[in-house]
Amino acid sequence: MDIPVPTLTWKTCPGDASRTAHGQTVECATVDLPLDYDDPTGATTPVSVDRVPASGRRIGSLFVNPGGPGGSARDFARYAGYLIGPGIRRHFDVIGVDPRGIGAPPYALCRYPSEDAPPGLAVPYPVTQHQAGRQIRADRILDEDCASGRNAIVDHMSTADYVRDIDVVRQAVGDEQLSYYGISYGSMVGQTYAAMFPDRVRAIIVDGVLDPIEWTAGRDPSVPSTYRLGSGHGAHEALVSALRECDRVGRDRCSIAGHAERIWQRTYRLARHGRLRVDGHRLVTQDLVSTALGALYQAPAIKRQLVRFLHDVAEQRRHRTARASRALASDWADLVRVRDRQQAAGPYGYAPPGRALTNRVTDVGFESVVCSDAVNPTDPWAWQRASRTADTAQPWFGRLWTWASSLCARWPGAGGDDAYRGPWRTTTSTPLLVVGNTHDPATPIQGARTATRQFAGSVLLTLDGWGHGALNTSACVRTWMAAYLIDQELPPAGTVCRPYRPLFP
After folding, report:
1. Of the ranges 83-92, 229-238, 357-366, 458-467, which one carries the lowest mean pLDDT score?
2. Domain holding 171: CATH number?
3. Sign of CA dihedral 407, 411, 416, 421
4. Number of structural domains in the chain
5. Rounded to an integer, what distance in angstroms lies between the CA atom of residue 281 and that of residue 500?
6. By C-alpha distance, which of 49, 69, 33, 156 is closest to 415?
7. How confident is the model over 6-27, as pLDDT tens digits?
8. What distance in Å separates the CA atoms of residue 139 and residue 43, rounded to the nearest whole number?
């Protein structure tokens, strides 16, 4: 349903937010949009928008989103134009529309009636039956409290709601059609816009692409959405291929070459049997897996942090000296910092949102989107069953990814009423540019291949490298992104780009 196009009042953003790192002015605006687009004249919710004006001959606006769900599009807009490709900052106003419930109050929050938060796990995700039971009980308590103690915005945070916000802002800035770049979960935003408004597409790039079918309705909805996306398989493939590349290039370029995969498997077994200790603390498999995953998101971290840690584990087992133990502890701390930065972004995100909460309030921005968009099982034990399957089908990482959506089993939010779950096959006014990485640990390239098939005439641009997404990792990718956005020129089908530098230089 159409709504009156609002007027945006732009002001220079306050304080340190007034300029980008490259000296460009940043402008801010807030617009009140319908809380429920089924009731466009009813209650509203504020949506925050930032704009970095074009520095040269302006083509139009480029809307951007860094994923999450929960990453700040406004923060991303401050540097996205620089990363995407040459000429973008000059020719486009780069605009970040923060997802409702994320970037400004009212936030997507649930409140507990007591002073204490529900009991959680001491580890990142369950492995044993007992741990699964504790996770399910904690999920039940949070779901029950969300049923009565949630902010109203929680019921209106589907990707389709956010896409409608973007479309209203597009009209407000005077663009006839949408130009857009989205990475990771931002790829779902781009695909949803293209499917809902196919005649309003000027140029849409989706990077680090989620399979739109598995994210939403699912080919088998009896399986949790975060299992069926295949991210556990992607992370396994990314790690194994990186370790084999280490063996291929030799010890001059990779310190564990010759035995790389064996050293990882030995380290994993040590953690599984309780014999992996760092600085006096016992690390379990969940610690090792979640921390290794963080490194897989950024290709340089594979060598600088992950390989160095695995090397130190082998050295510490071999020599058992104080010096070896200190090196192991230092490198583990570096690896944890990499993990923590990535976890702040959300599993399908690029840039961190960063907001602290009290023990009586929980941020449910991620769940408000995921549980609204996706059809999930209603039996909470389906997550444990899928995890057992993942141990074979998606080794090491499958359990971690599977449990990311466990709150959806009894999710009380009503956002699914307005979610878009297909059809996805459509012809858009301009074909999409789909960008996929061959060794992506979060969004395996199969998602990009699926997306390319859904949107007629779209082209898959492949980056043959490691890490999550292709943003600012390859001169070839940046050149084609800029050509597409500025001149609407797509690369030839089958184009494969190389990264700036090899995994092990």
Report:
1. 357-366
2. 3.40.50.1820
3. positive
4. 1
5. 38
6. 156
7. 999 999 999 888 898 888 999 9
8. 30
Contacts of 385 (CB under 8 A, 6+ apart): none
Q: Look at residue 453 and tell me if it is in a domain.
A: yes
Structural domain range at position 169: 11-105+156-216+419-497
Q: Is residue 457 part of a domain?
A: yes
pLDDT at 255: 95
Q: Tell me, what's the pLDDT at 354?
A: 31
Query: Which H or E run contains 330?
Result: helix 322-345
Burial letters for 137-172: b for 16+ Cβ neighbours within 10 Å, e otherwise? ebbebbbbbbeebbbebbbbbbbbbbbbbbbbbbbe
The predicted structure's pLDDT at residue 70: 85
- Does the pLDDT of residue 157 top 80, yes or no? yes
> Would you state the pLDDT for residue 356?
34
Q: Sort 323 into a burial class: Cβ within 10 Å, 0-12 / 13-18 / 19+.
A: exposed
Q: Does a structural domain hold residue 409?
A: no
Contact 371, 411 (CB under 8 A): yes
Contact (Cβ atoms closer than 8 angstroms) between residue 92 and residue 69: no
The CA-CA-CA angle for residues 325, 330, 331, to 5°, reads 100
The span from the CA of 457 to the CA of 23, in Å, is 38
Q: For residue range 235-276, list pLDDT tens digits in order.
A: 999 999 999 999 999 999 999 999 999 999 999 999 999 999
Residue 497 pairs in a beta bridge with: 463
3-class DSSP assignment, residue 34: strand
- 336, part of any domain: no
Task: Measure the CA–CA gap between 73 and 5, rounded to whole angstroms.
Answer: 21
Of 52, 56, 60, the residue nearest 488 (C-alpha)? 60
Q: HSE on the CB side for 33, CA within 13 Å?
A: 31
Place of tokens 């990482």: 397
Q: What is the mean pLDDT of residues 123-148?
A: 91
> Which residues is 109 bridged to in the sheet?
363
Gap between the terminal Cα atoms of the chain: 54
